[in-house]
Amino acid sequence: MKRTMKQWIGVSTTAIMTVTMLAGCGSSGSEAGKDQGGQATATAAATANAKPFAGKTISLVTANHPWADAIKPLLPEFEQETGIKVNVESFFEDQLTQKLTVQFTSGSATPDVFMYRPLQEGKLFYKNGWLQPLDDYAQKAKDYDFNDFSKSAIGSTTVDSKLAGIPIITEQEILYYRKDLLEKAGIPVPKTLDELTAAVKKLHDAKNEMYGFVARGQRSPLVTQVSSFLYSEGADFTNGDKAVINTPEAIKAFTTYGTLLKDYAPPGVLNMSWPQAFGIFAQGKVAFLTDANSLYKNLTDPAKSQVADKVGFAVFPSGKAGSKPYSITSWGLAMNTKSANKDAAWAFIQWASSKDTVLKTQQKGNPGARASVWDNPEGTTGFPAELVPIIKESAKAGVDHDRPTVISVGEARDAVGEIVQKVMTGETNIQPVADKANEALQAIMDKDKTK
């Protein structure tokens, strides 16, 4: 990105030199011309290292996240080249959302730039007028190469056909498995959901505390992970303005996920979110797990996992519609519409999401959204070699959301999660449950239109 920064500086320098030289043309006499020529040379030298935003200060609010830890040591470089001072504050996720909501509701001009979760609060923030559309900035930025971002990642940060933020952290749902167990049993890595079910049944041995499958079972958390089952069967949460979680394809997906957890998961799965699911897999008690690739270190770090050297990664298994895992932007950077420093704010976003900076943050294990960085061997050093092709393949086939894309996300997740939990607790006739949940989701969507 240094090259782009210098181009901005070069434009500023050229403008100053032009004005100075024109002033020189208006002087008379050889000495005057000589003095003006010398002044032009001196001015050019003095401004060669000029900073295009000298004296500007922007505020940046981040989550307590590894990406923020990776970007902070790089800030002096950005400040040195642009003249922009970046004041940073960091908060836990829930505190971050609360802080942003309070400040934006009051019409605050700060923060100028902030981290946000596009699929959790993006639609609400945009609807309230808190997210500055970035389409013109991104499309016109020289050497930014906006088309280098994955299509699904941009889809996650797009609201009502407007670019509401820039992706900085992506994730896809993948299949984790125990390589040693599959090898011992002579089972190939499942490529379809039917093959997964068969393998889970074969490896399940509850009497010896070996369970075939685990995933999120809590009502709201499970929704993001059942989404890949949904898409791979040819279904979705919504179709335009209509809720569609009661179709035959949707019911099949919910039933598959719920049945795997009901029959082959460890005890207590109804209360499991990702920490509990990963925790019991790491104890060596589970054969298969489906969840986000971004959480892989919980299984591969010997300090956290008893099976660190036995974990395999695979693309999400295919259903009727093929393999269609979610491939989303879990965290993005956005600009406050009330910011008084929009050009400086964009300069930061452009730098933070540039190829050079993404390379550096991705080397620290932060999965970015730029295809060129994933294709660069230097950009994959922060990830297990076996995981990299899985990420790349999943990103190409992935769907840009992992939950209903509505304003009232929490209510919508509860409505969907109810279906799966009924399967998990033994309900055999799911159609009435799905019909009722679909009505609830439709009511939520209709209500959102009035907000």
From TrEMBL:
Origin: domain of life: Bacteria
InterPro entries on file: Bact_solute-bd_prot1, SBP
Gene3D superfamilies from the UniProt entry: Periplasmic binding protein-like II
Signal peptide: 1-23
Keyword tags: Signal
Pfam family, one: SBP_bac_1
Signal among keywords: yes
PROSITE patterns in the record: PROKAR_LIPOPROTEIN (PS51257)
Protein name: Sugar ABC transporter substrate-binding protein
Annotated source species: Paenibacillus hexagrammi
